């Protein structure tokens, strides 16, 4: 385990998992990691040790499979990021996690392709998704830092680069049983958890236009 300070450990119980342990655990779910439409939810994500490594592994796969097809690569890369979620108590960790994930995407993208004229739009789309998916709050109480319900966005890729966004509450994503709609969010037992669409479903939008969306 690693720590930032004794004060943070005493106040928040904050410790970080070493990369060796991260890799050992993720090796057990490598097949899910390589499927870009499989979703991972880290309820205490810290500054992103697990999520950054998951994305790194995904980008390695994309570089190998789609390194000669920019169009397919970009769409799959956005999808790979969109299926990663993190909840974290401390705002500085949230910001650091988002930045780490963005850097992982950029490093692997730029190792495969030169920046295209719409590369800034892809970067903006990734930032937008990370703002929605990596949030500050308490996963045990399902509340954000303001005491309101933690809301997340489900990103459904429906072809042609279009994405349908469904807003839902974190509490419904981890609820078991009942009248639920199944998704690919992984529960504690490795099986799909349940999601109940919550509040609103937005019209489809191209992933390059996500950053300009009002939601």
List the helices and strands and how they pair.
Elements: H1 6-12, H2 19-26, H3 30-33, E1 40-42, H4 49-66, H5 70-82, E2 84-88, H6 91-112, H7 119-133, E3 134-138, E4 143-144, E5 151-159, E6 162-169, H8 170-173, E7 181-186, E8 192-195, E9 200-201, E10 205-206
Parallel strand pairs: 1-2, 2-3
Antiparallel strand pairs: 3-4, 5-6, 6-9, 6-10, 7-8
Describe this structure in words.
There is one protein chain. The chain has 215 residues and is α+β, with helices and mostly antiparallel strands. It is 42% helix and 21% strand. The protein has 8 helices and 10 strands. The protein has helices at 6-12, 19-26, 30-33, 49-66, 70-82, 91-112, 119-133, 170-173; strands at residues 40-42, 84-88, 134-138, 143-144, 151-159, 162-169, 181-186, 192-195, 200-201, 205-206. The strands form 3 sheets. A 4-stranded mixed β-sheet has the order 1-2-3-4. Strands 5, 6, 9 and 10 form a 4-stranded antiparallel β-sheet that branches. It has a two-stranded antiparallel ribbon with strand order 7-8. Helix 5 packs parallel to helix 7 (119-133). It is globular. 31% of the residues are buried. Residues 8-14, 176-189 and 192-197 have low confidence and may be disordered.
Low-pLDDT runs of 5+ residues are: 8-14, 176-189, 192-197
Walk across the major sheet and give the strand order: 1-2-3-4
Q: Report the average pLDDT across residues.
A: 84
Oligomer designation: single chain
Summarize the structure.
By secondary structure, the chain is α+β, with helices and mostly antiparallel strands.
């Amino acid at each position: 385990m690693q720590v930032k300070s004794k004060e943070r450990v005493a106040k928040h119980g904050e410790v970080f998992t070493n990369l060796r342990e991260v890799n050992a655990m993720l090796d057990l779910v490598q097949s899910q990691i390589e499927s870009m439409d499989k979703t991972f939810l880290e309820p205490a994500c810290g500054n992103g040790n697990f999520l950054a490594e998951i994305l790194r592994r995904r980008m390695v796969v994309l570089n190998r499979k789609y390194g000669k097809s920019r169009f397919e690569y970009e769409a799959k890369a956005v999808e790979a990021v969109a299926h990663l979620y993190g909840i974290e108590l401390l705002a500085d960790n949230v910001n650091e996690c988002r930045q780490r994930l963005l850097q992982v995407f950029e490093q692997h993208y730029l190792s495969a392709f030169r920046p295209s004229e719409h590369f800034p739009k892809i970067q903006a789309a990734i930032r937008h998704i990370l703002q929605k998916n990596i949030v500050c709050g308490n996963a045990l109480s399902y509340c954000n830092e303001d005491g309101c319900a933690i809301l997340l966005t489900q990103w459904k890729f429906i072809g042609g680069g279009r994405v349908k966004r469904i807003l839902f509450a974190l509490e419904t994503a981890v609820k078991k049983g009942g009248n639920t709609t199944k998704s690919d969010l992984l529960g504690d037992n490795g099986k799909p958890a349940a999601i109940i669409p919550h509040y609103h479903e937005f019209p489809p939008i191209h992933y390059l236009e996500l950053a300009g969306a009002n939601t």
